Recover the amino acids of this structure.
């Protein structure tokens, strides 16, 4: 049974105090904390198994290679891709998207071809396409949102057409939380012969994700946003795609035969993993996947819906506070962004931090969306498996202090 | 263990809140001789400063901008403080302000009301907010030769 209080005991950092108070960590959309099992796996690897992989003949090299490849299989299983397509390990979701933009986009996009994105993309799913558009002459089109931060499907239908070669979209928004109807959009894209790339950085960690059900061709996500170490990203690609693409980076590990003029490539996925990969962190990521699998992703999702519903209800009672995104907690991930009238988000975050409450303030690497919301920045609380209802109350109380400080400033200024 | 009181009062002093909520000299100067602007790309604070000059002295200063209470109050107080100062005096103020905020130095007497910002020194994440308008001022003064 899912028990967030028991889960908390597995995360040593949650015992920390910040500014004299218990840490209330609500910045999980930026990165999550790590359970002891992940930290142990990292230490165990370096203590007992450290060796370079894939080429070694000795025992340590064989063990390390097996452990690394076992995580590849486990990752595939986690997203319903066992024996279906290929998993490439990268540095992060950003690098996964860049890999597709360079290795697929530069080879396949022609002047006038269109790449369809959405206004709620993270910069990591905008800038790589701007770079490739500049090199190829392709054009970027952005699907707009409605007043509740949901994609406008009528606009998607309008934009996705014969010129569309790729539709690339975020599964769950890191700002408004919206969970996008990827399967529906993938169908529109495939009908016109376009491929579909999904940024799963905020969905794979938080809900059951099955690449067949999504119907996408590429899926990118990051280990560090799902209890794993930093420095590991994942790219899943549908069968045959990576085989048809040229390598992204060249070097060791990714070749078959090297001759003075040209070389031949290793098999997929190794063709896309040039150089010594992040062996230790990939292996520790395996422990994170085990941890989440034991909790059950459906239970993780249910827990986050409960916390989100509570946060939406509690925060909406604060005067002058606007919450962005869908009102229905079932329609969004565990991310709640808000604005407080007359108070800049950085001031909100500083005061919250003085109560030990860690939230994010800024444009959340989504300037197009932030501007679309009519803001220059927002404050954001985001939840995960170890968060409990009391922490939402702690956030609400910290926000009440924010209101008090700025009301105080206002009333004194008025009598001045 | 007693829970210590949160320390944000040191940062959000009344004078700072007043300037944030009721900024002085906000807008443009018709006879501005010097102008510069700047931003903190990480947090999005923006400040532009205009200076009306006469004989090597700042006659009036005005600012435009958006951002947090610290960055905007700092710009507002800057415009009040530098009016009537020579270029050399204004530069000296900027350096004294930075020493107080970055080095945690006791405020120099010339800073006057700007001592309200000394609490910023304890909030490393906010130092750039307080300094932004002063960096912009220094860039504007570079135009004075």
């Amino acid at each position: 049974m899912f028990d967030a209080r028991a889960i908390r005991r597995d995360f040593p950092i949650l015992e920390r105090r910040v500014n004299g108070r218990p840490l209330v960590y609500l910045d999980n959309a930026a990165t999550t904390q790590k359970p002891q099992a992940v930290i142990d796996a990292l230490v165990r690897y370096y203590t007992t198994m450290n060796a370079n992989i894939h080429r070694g003949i000795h025992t340590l090299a064989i063990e390390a290679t097996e452990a690394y490849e076992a995580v590849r299989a486990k990752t595939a299983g986690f997203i319903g891709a066992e024996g279906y397509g290929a998993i490439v390990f990268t540095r992060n979701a950003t690098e996964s998207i860049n890999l597709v933009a360079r290795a697929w986009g530069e080879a396949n996009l022609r002047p006038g071809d269109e790449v369809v994105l959405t206004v709620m993309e993270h910069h990591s799913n905008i800038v790589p396409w701007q770079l490739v558009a500049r090199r190829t002459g392709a054009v970027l089109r952005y699907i707009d949102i409605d007043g509740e931060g949901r994609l406008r499907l009528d606009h998607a239908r309008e934009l996705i057409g014969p010129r569309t070669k790729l539709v690339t979209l975020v599964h769950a928004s890191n700002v408004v939380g919206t969970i996008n109807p990827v399967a529906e959009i993938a169908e529109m894209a495939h009908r016109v012969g376009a491929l579909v790339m999904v940024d799963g950085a905020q969905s794979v960690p938080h809900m059951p994700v099955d690449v067949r059900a999504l119907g996408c061709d590429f899926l990118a996500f990051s280990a560090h946003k799902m209890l794993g170490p930093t420095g590991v990203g994942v790219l899943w690609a549908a069968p045959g795609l990576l085989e048809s693409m040229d390598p992204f980076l060249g070097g060791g590990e990714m070749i078959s035969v090297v001759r003075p003029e040209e070389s031949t490539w290793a098999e997929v996925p190794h063709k896309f993993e040039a150089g010594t990969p992040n062996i230790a962190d990939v292996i520790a990521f395996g422990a994170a996947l085990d941890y989440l699998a034991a909790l059950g992703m459906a239970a993780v999702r249910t827990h986050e819906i409960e916390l989100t519903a509570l946060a939406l209800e509690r925060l909406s009672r604060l005067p002058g506070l606007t919450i962005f995104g869908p009102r229905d907690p079932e329609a969004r991930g565990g991310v709640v962004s808000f604005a407080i009238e007359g108070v800049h988000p950085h001031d909100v975050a500083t005061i919250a931090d003085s109560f030990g409450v860690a939230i994010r303030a800024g444009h959340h690497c989504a300037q197009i969306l932030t501007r679309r919301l009519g803001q220059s920045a927002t404050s954001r609380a985001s939840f995960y498996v170890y968060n409990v209802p009391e922490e939402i109350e702690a956030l609400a109380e910290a926000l009440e202090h924010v209101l008090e400080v700025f009301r105080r400033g206002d009333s004194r200024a008025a009598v001045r | 263990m007693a829970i210590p009181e949160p320390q944000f009062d040191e940062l959000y002093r009344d004078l700072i809140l007043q300037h944030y909520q009721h900024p002085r000299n906000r807008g443009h100067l018709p006879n501005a001789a010097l102008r510069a602007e700047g931003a903190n790309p990480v947090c999005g604070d923006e400040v532009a400063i205009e200076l009306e000059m006469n004989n090597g002295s700042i006659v009036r200063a005005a600012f435009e901008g958006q951002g947090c209470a610290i960055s905007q109050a700092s710009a507002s107080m800057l415009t009040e403080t530098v009016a009537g100062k020579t270029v050399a005096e204004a530069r000296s103020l900027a350096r004294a302000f930075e020493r107080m905020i970055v080095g945690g130095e006791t405020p120099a007497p010339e800073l006057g009301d700007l001592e309200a910002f000394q609490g910023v020194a304890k909030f490393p994440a906010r130092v750039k907010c307080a300094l932004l308008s002063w960096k912009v001022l220094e860039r504007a003064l570079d135009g004075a030769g």
In short: The longest helix of chain B spans residues 87-102. The interface with chain A takes residues 3-4, 6-9, 11-12, 14, 16-18, 20-22, 42-45, 66-70, 123, 125-126, 129 of chain B (CB under 8 Å). The radius of gyration of chain B is 15 Å.
